[in-house]
Each structure stands twice: as C-alpha cells, then as structure tokens.
Amino acid sequence: MTERKDENRTVKVSKYLSKHLRHRPERIGLTLDEGGWVEIDTLLAAAAAHGFRITRDELHHVVATNDKKRFAIEGTRIRASQGHSVEIDLGLPPATPPAYLYHGTVARNLDAIRAEGLRPMDRHHVHLSPDRETATRVGARRGRPVVLTVDAGAMQRDGHVFHVSANGVWLTKAVPPRYLRFRGPR
C-alpha cells in the first residue's frame, strides 16, 4: 500500500512540476530565466506558499525516476527538458537526426495531420521519438496508438532544423505532410 501511495505522490509531484515549469510558472509566482531555469529553493518555496509542499528529496526522486526524463537539474537550478508553452530558449544546438523519427498519436487526429502535417500546437516544437516503442507509448496516453514515421533525413536535406533535448526527444518546428508515412493502429 505504501509503495502505491509513494507512486501516486511521485506522479502528482511530476504533474505539478510540468505545469509550473512548462506552462504556468506565474500561477505560483515563478519567473523562469531565458533558458527555462529556476532556482530549486525558489521553486520549493513557491510551491509551499501555494499549498503544495515538495521536499528536496521528493524533487530529486521525481527528476531521477521520471521515465521520460522531463526535468533537468544543473547545480542549484531545475527546468523542464522540453514541452514549454511559455517563451523560453532551451539553447539546444542544431543536431543531425537519424534517417527516421517517429510520432505517436491516435486515429482521430489523422485527418488533420494528413492535411496540415504535425504542428507544435500550444508548444514551441513538434516532439518526435527516436524509436517506435517510445512513440507507441506517447500515442497510447490518448487512446489506441498510431505511429507515424517521419522522414527526418529528407527534412534535414530540405533545410528543416532539428534539436535533441537532454532526454532524447527530437524537436523541430513542424513536419509537413510530405515527410510523413502513416501506419495504422497497433
């Protein structure tokens, strides 16, 4: 029972961090620097002041055990690795992607994707996975997954820029439909 309770708390802390380090830092009085970083002490104090106490041990546990490595700690600072809807610059250099990357989605999104390609929606970049298994897990969060193959090599040859975040997620501004290969539900 305690293990389940600890797991639930870890998920709750992770979601709280995602919300405030990626999307709504101002809701708890945080100001992220231009790279998305905030002092850990400032984050912990802001969370406590808004009724959500996080211990330093919990924070480090969430960062260390998050399966997607959503957060990074550098010295006394923390940030989300990617997925921001607030304006920040992760400072990631352009990177050469593998020939193919993958994107997990669900069938209800396919008509729009066929027409418009992959767009960042409320984020700064489209998120792509380095393998089908990861893309399948991403798509499965919203239902029965559909994995799209992205011809990243052709995109790069055509001038599209890619970056790779600290947790291995590939980022690009958009993926036009011509670079996508559709594969049915798994």
UniProtKB/TrEMBL annotation:
Database matches in InterPro entries: Ptrans_KptA/Tpt1 (IPR002745), RNA_2'-PTrans_C (IPR042081), RNA_2'-PTrans_KptA (IPR022928), RNA_2'-PTrans_N (IPR042080)
EC number from the UniProt entry: 2.7.1.-
Superkingdom assignment: Bacteria
Record carries keyword Ligase: no
Keyword entries, A-Z: NAD, Transferase
UniProt cross-references to SUPFAM superfamilies, sorted A to Z: ADP-ribosylation (SSF56399)
Gene Ontology terms, MF aspect: NAD+ poly-ADP-ribosyltransferase activity; tRNA 2'-phosphotransferase activity
Biological-process GO terms, alphabetical: tRNA splicing, via endonucleolytic cleavage and ligation
Record has Transferase as a keyword: yes
Root EC class: transferase
Function field: Removes the 2'-phosphate from RNA via an intermediate in which the phosphate is ADP-ribosylated by NAD followed by a presumed transesterification to release the RNA and generate ADP-ribose 1''-2''-cyclic phosphate (APPR>P). May function as an ADP-ribosylase.
The family this protein is said to belong to: Belongs to the KptA/TPT1 family.
Stated name of the protein: Probable RNA 2'-phosphotransferase
Name of encoding gene: kptA
